From TrEMBL:
Family: Belongs to the flavodoxin family.
Cited Gene3D superfamilies: 3.40.50.360
The keyword Ribonucleoprotein is assigned to this record: no
Domain Flavodoxin-like residues, every copy: 1-137
Protein's job: Low-potential electron donor to a number of redox enzymes.
Designated name of the protein: Flavodoxin
A matching Pfam family: Flavodoxin_1
Gene Ontology MF: a single term: oxidoreductase activity, acting on NAD(P)H
Domain of life assignment: Bacteria
InterPro entries tied to this protein: Flav_short, Flavodoxin/NO_synth, Flavodoxin_CS, Flavoprotein-like_sf, NADH_oxidoreductase_modular
Amino acid sequence: MKIIYWSGTGNTEAMANLIAKGVLNSGKEAEVLSVDKVNIDDVKNENILILGCPSMGAEMLEESEFEPFIQGLEHFGQGKKALLFGSYGWGDGEWMRNWEEQMKLYGFEIPIEPVIVNEMPEGDDKQLCIRYGEQIAKL
């Protein structure tokens, strides 16, 4: 499984690594990759996409690298699952709700509710991310 993320401060990257730990705890393999290290051809044949991006600006995805990558998935969603996660510093999670809707419009199934964490995952949020990875591994 590939866990693809964009992180400006390291918070979402930390989430990606914790999710990978959960996947590994369940006996599966996970590769954690920054979005600048992948392209659409690397993932278009994957059945499960694990994607992470923090809330940016007025609660939206990062615009220069991550949003173009997501838009490139528009024609590859049918019959595939997307698992979404990200961190935020303000707002109420609107960016995640919008992103989830966008992925559904692209044909992706969202089998597990996305995970959002305020700032850096610490305490219970670390366990939340690990459990999310464990749930993903069971799909």
